[in-house]
Queue: 2 jobs
Job 1
Amino acid sequence: MSLKGIRKAVLQVDPYVPGKTTEEVMCEKGLKNVIKLGSNENPYGPFPNALKAMTEELSRLNTYPDVSFKEIKRAIADLSGLGSENVCISHGAEGMLQTIGKTFLDPGDEVIIPSSTYGLYREISKLMGARVIEVPMKGEHYIDLHGCLKVLSERTKLIWLNNPNNPTGTVFDREGIQGIFREMPSHSWVILDEAYGEFTDPSFLTDTASFIREGKNVISVRTFSKAFGLAGARIGYCLCSKELSVVIDTVSEPFNANRIGIAGALATLKDDREEYLKALSGIRKERERLIHGFENLGLRPVRSHANFVFVETGFNGAILADMMLDKGVIVRPCNGWDYPSSLRITVGTPRENEIMLLVLSETLEDLRKEVSH
Ligand code: PMP
């Protein structure tokens, strides 16, 4: 790089590779209809009252939002069973992950990260000059908490855990986390990214609120982008101890969520419960249909607890995804996560899923024909 003066740590950070947008694919491929199942969005959002509240909020955009986020913190507290003082707001969960990095990481600190998980943990840690200790997955697709335990050291500052895990959709066992709490030094923190937690049967999730009440060093990171259907409004939050929330709010930039996002999130929680539950049950039902659909095509899906399904295809995932893109279906190849023959496919509406399965089936047939020639 020819620019001078950039921090050394910044030069180590890899740019985030987002899923393709519908507009990009329409333009690149000259297609009129594109189905986007590559970014784990919720096809049913924004819900009607949220849409109304966000539209009404437009006329107030000349003024800053409430810097203390009083109302939205109260609504999230009611949802989680904790108090408002246990909630911090952010610009998407991504903003909270960045703030957590800034809050805890000094150069030379160690962070523990499972080898195939959400990529931002690694880049944020590198940006702060921390040393990344990678823990291989267990049985290919599962976060290995015992493996994390084995690499704990006095230098461990953060243990980044995603439950359910992106891209595999798996959850880890609830008891394993207790071992980490028992063994980790008092200055280590478990970051539980539960961005997809609402799609999971609660019996598979850890009871993060009770860990916080017990005074464990844990932060739960959550978002309105997935189950609540507000990815474009960019609002996320965390749950943590009262003491830590003061620190996190201090490190966050002021006004780090916007009026539209706050209005949408509030209305979703207060007035869109019915629509939200309907969307959740629709997604869960379709998730099962996708799993069966993949099995019927001779593929190996992994049991998912999120709004996407990870599937082993036996072909190069990047090539397969590219061929599907030509037919107007965006899915996510998992080559970058070291799964060269897998796809991560978001659960869409029944119609979107139907078309995706059809396109996948045709594409696999084309590839099988190529192999047999
Ligand atoms: N965590 C995980 C595991 C994710 O997959 C994502 C987004 N795909 C995020 C956090 C960030 O979500 P957002 O910033 O949209 O809230």
Job 2
Amino acid sequence: MGNNNNKNNNNSNYPFSSPEGEAGVQIVPKLDTPKMYKVILLNDDYTPMDFVVLVLRRFFAKTEEQATQIMLDVHKKGAGVAGVYSLEIAEMKVMQVNQFAQLNQYPLKSTLEEEA
Ligand code: TYC
């Protein structure tokens, strides 16, 4: 946050010259695509597979087949992508998953990761 040194601020017109010249202050409207964030599901040894499938269906709108595939992938590899969203939606999904798991007394956790 507050850091402009990222891929979304590549609005330089280099190598073309601008009317302002090199020293001119250029105000470029930020019309770049917004950053997207992966919601990552983490594996653990205790959360039942059925519960993870339910989470993927309920909060990530996956079909039974998609949810089962993602759950098995997380189970085998340790982590996996449940969905990709804008920051505020991704943050909400993480909260929903973690709260729903805690409510049901399972250690299932999800986290955020900026898309490459
Ligand atoms: N490893 C769990 C089990 O064997 C299943 C599981 C899958 C848990 C995915 C969490 O994100 C997860 N019951």
